[in-house]
Amino acid sequence: MAKPEFEFFPVTDIEWTVCPGDDPKITERILAKDPEGNVATRILRYEPGADSTPMGVQKHDFWEEVYILEGSFTDLTLGETFTAGMYACRPPGMPHGPWSTDEGVVTFEVRYHSK
Prior knowledge:
Elements: E1 17-18, E2 26-34, E3 39-46, E4 63-75, E5 80-83, E6 87-90, E7 99-100, E8 105-112
Antiparallel strand pairs: 1-2, 2-3, 3-8, 4-5, 4-6, 4-7, 4-8
Organism: Rhodococcus jostii
Protein name: Cupin domain-containing protein
Domain ChrR-like cupin: 11-109
């Protein structure tokens, strides 16, 4: 199955929901999701002071592309801070995070499987 077809719509029509890990400071708007492939296009938001350390280093079985729209966050493993206007493309299995942010961050993410 694939992500559903949508024509343009205001993303503000989609409510913020708490991400897996249950930290209320880390929320997402799922714009489109493939329910079978467990991949999605989303907007991710870390509120100021959010820290994903309890979720540890992340590795996925899918590709993930991330563009930082606002703010910044720090990859605690790398000790490096990434800011608005920066982009990442992560192949399956690439470790990243955990993350923390003082000012908050909003990202646009596309996740998919490649054949």
